[in-house]
Specification:
Elements: E1 11-12, H1 14-25, H2 31-40, E2 48-50, E3 53-57, H3 58-68, H4 76-86, H5 95-105, H6 110-115
Antiparallel strand pairs: 1-3, 2-3
Helix pairs in contact: 1-2, 1-3
Length: about 120
């Protein structure tokens, strides 16, 4: 159900949404990327369906684009470190690195750390 505050929100179709993200935030984005993100994973911006047509709220596009932009850094090595800490990576080189990155990001992440530990006997 749409709440009254949502009725004033501006909604964009997929092609318009991709163009908005590129023009406003300078973040590379295409209509096909938004379609893939909507179908394959939940990493894309939020949207509503109007029948079979996705409608993206501008506020959701802004928040999603902001989340994709990393912190301001002074060197490429600093950028890699920031990516590790932000966990915007495929995975640290070792489990120890992963635990360190999670501990820096969230000192109370013991449940996350125990969930990511590799089972014994599967070393490659």
């Amino acid at each position: 159900m749409i709440e009254p505050s949502d009725t004033r929100e501006r909604y964009l179709r997929r092609a318009e949404a991709a163009k908005y993200v590129v023009d406003t935030h300078n973040v590379p984005c295409s209509r096909k990327t938004l379609a893939k993100l909507a179908c394959v994973c939940s990493d894309g911006p939020p949207f509503r369906l109007a029948g079979r047509f996705p409608l993206y709220p501008v506020s959701g596009l802004d928040a999603w684009a902001h989340a994709k932009i990393g912190p301001l850094v002074h060197s490429t090595s600093e950028a890699r470190t920031a990516a590790h800490i932000g966990l915007n990576i495929k995975g640290p080189r070792s489990e120890v690195d992963r635990r360190a990155a999670i501990a820096v990001l969230n000192p109370n992440a013991t449940a996350v750390i125990t969930a990511t530990v590799k089972p014994e006997g599967r070393d490659r």
